[in-house]
Design brief:
The chain has about 375 residues and is mostly helical. Helix 7 packs antiparallel against helix 8.
Length: about 375
């Protein structure tokens, strides 16, 4: 990325920024690798603590950077990101040593074994980045910077939210795989259906509530000048829902060992997305970028479901899903009719009402909450 960006016509500050942030991505990648140890041992609280510390450090250093460089704080803020991520990496390494002491050795046999297992995942991840990121890049080629900024602000919400399903599925990947290997169909079905329900509990109110509160949420997050990003946020929330369930199915592809079969779908998605972006973005701008993102994410979710179904038939719990949908829709209707101006109060009312409706419709029980919390 550093080599490529210096060969582009982007401004100097962009090239400097990519060079700086590459260090942060290096540290973040190592954190991801080490997180697997915590997932395997079900000690995710340690990762949560390190992440919280990293966020606090980022906040404090951000305030300091803006105060010290009030006119030119962009590059200092990027160095803040690097510093905070490096500190988190040190915390994670220290915590890992208490669970499973690390030894760094060169073992080419293990390298070969890991590469043989992981290359399909690496390829699909690279293809995912192509269709996940190229919309913003192509938008910057054809549309004004202001439009790119509006799209980027709403897209950032999607990027933050969609880190969660990967964290969650990474946590239960080992139990799912163990149930599959042991041919324990009852446990496999229970784990998968509970995961579906958990994602439905998050996604459905997120889409319906987000549709109602998109404008005040964007104003709260980015300021009144970004209110024009609200329609894009409403569309991208649909893509968020598709990503959640797409992650659920793509991890099941890993469980059943069919990751190679998913590669053609990712190739089609990457090529199709780029062609669609290039054709439609000049005509319709950020609206086209958002809707293409939705279509591509739904396509990937369906492709992963189809690949998984050849080995294991995943049956979503229909009744509980309909109850969750009913609670989400009713919550959104009430939110839309409330004469409340504060978005924080609206969110609090929505969350409270949603919880009450879930229990009223018997879509959720205390025993299930305790069970889900025990996974995390």
């Amino acid at each position: 990325s550093i080599g490529i960006v210096w060969a582009t016509p982007y401004p100097l500050i962009v090239k400097q920024g990519v060079t700086i942030l590459a260090l942060s991505y290096c540290a973040a990648s190592l954190i991801t690798v080490l997180t697997a140890i915590f997932q395997y041992n079900l000690h995710m609280r340690l990762i949560a603590v390190s992440s919280t510390v990293q966020k606090i450090i980022t906040l404090l250093l951000t305030v300091a950077a803006i105060a010290y460089w009030p006119q030119s704080y962009l590059l200092p803020l990027l160095w803040v990101t690097v510093a905070a991520t490096m500190i988190q990496l040190m915390i994670v390494i220290g915590a890992v040593q208490k669970i499973s002491p690390l030894r760094f050795v060169i073992d080419r046999k293990w390298w070969q074994r890991i590469l043989l297992i992981s290359w399909p995942i690496a390829l699909t991840t690279a293809l995912n980045l192509v269709y996940f990121k190229m919309d913003t890049v192509i938008l910057s080629w054809y549309r004004p910077a202001a439009e790119v900024g509006l799209y980027g602000a709403s897209y950032r919400v999607l990027e933050i939210i969609t880190t969660f399903p990967h964290m969650f599925m990474g946590l239960i990947l080992a139990p799912l795989t163990a149930a599959w290997v042991a041919k324990d169909s009852d446990r496999l079905r229970s784990l998968w259906q509970r995961s579906w329900e958990f994602f439905a509990l998050i996604v459905m109110p997120l889409i319906t509530g987000g549709f109602v509160l998109a404008e005040p949420v964007m104003v709260l997050i980015a300021g009144p000048e970004f209110i024009g990003a609200a329609p894009i946020l409403q569309i991208l929330l649909l893509a968020t829902g598709a990503i959640f369930f797409g992650v659920l199915f793509t991890y099941m592809v890993l469980v059943v060992g069919r990751q190679k079969a998913l590669i053609p779908s990712f190739i089609v998605a990457a090529i199709g997305a780029i062609l669609a972006y290039i054709y439609f973005i000049p005509l319709y701008g950020m609206l086209a970028a958002a809707w293409i993102t939705v279509i591509i994410e739904i396509f990937i979710a369906l492709a992963a479901w189809k690949v998984t179904a050849k080995e294991y038939v995943c049956r979503p719990p229909l009744i509980s899903s309909l109850k969750i949908l009913a609670a989400s829709l009713l919550m959104a209707v009430v939110l839309a009719s409330l004469p409340i101006s504060s978005v924080l109060i609206q969110i609090l009312v929505g969350v409270t009402l949603y919880g009450i409706l879930l229990f009223a419709f018997r879509a959720l029980r205390w025993s299930e909450i305790n069970h889900l919390l025990s996974w995390s």
